Amino acid sequence: MVIPTAFLVAGGFYTFGLLAIIGALGVLLAHRVFHSALFLVMTLASVAAEFVILGADFLAMVEILVYVGAIMVLILFGIMLTPQQVHLPDIGSAGRSVAAALVAGAIFVITAAVVVTSEWPRSVVTPMDVPTTQIIGQQLFGPYVLPFEIASVLLLIAMIGAIVIARED
Amino acid sequence: MPTAAPPIYPIALQHGLVLGAALFAIGMAGALTKRNAITVLMCVELMLNGVIVTFVSFARHAASTDLAGQVFSIFIMTVAAAEAAVGLAIVIAVHRVRNTVQVDEVQSMQG
Description:
The structure holds two protein chains of two kinds.
Chain A: H1 5-29, H2 33-53, H3 57-81, H4 94-117, H5 133-140, H6 145-166
Helix pairs in contact in A: 1-2, 2-3
Chain B: H1 13-33, H2 37-61, H3 68-98
């Protein structure tokens, strides 16, 4: 029995999309900060899987390396180096939480309504078996070389700044 | 001989965009309500991921093959990494001086 590729692609997309949203809700609703971090790992890994399904193989690897590998380790170090209360209530009163939920919900509803009701140009199916690494590299060192250099300087500044801010004395 | 119709990609562009919007909205709700500064940083990462999902969806469905959306996503990840590093350095510095990581207890710059 051959499972059609379209079914696999669509099924994978919706499964990992659901996992990503569940993980995001877990970040939002978990009481312990460490649990929030684990849920964030789940969301980031699901997003990486979505990138594979959307034909962005290089970005999926970068997502795993940078987010799950580097940023999450940094966040776990931050959790480790600071005292954590287990049951930390949310900020402010219940009214503020309701207001924040209303604002976020309104943004989601408006964005989704615009997305659904807009006329999008018909999707063009590009071949999915083309590796994107070469194209991205040519883009980075071609038309996007100036943003690339600025990003390098930004990373250098962030590195120096983080060292200066966080060191003792 | 008629050419075969191009296969239709099984995922509509809108579904990726709605997923990105959902991640952005959930992250925003967390960034507005969470009290722990590290959790706020995590929620900001969620918001950035929502935007990245949007860019990659557009790159998948765009007519051009120059992958501008994916290149933009790489720049977003760069900024996210820098933001996480500096943000956590600030959290640790605040913890050293004020002995707290709760965002509502650090308000000495409030007018």
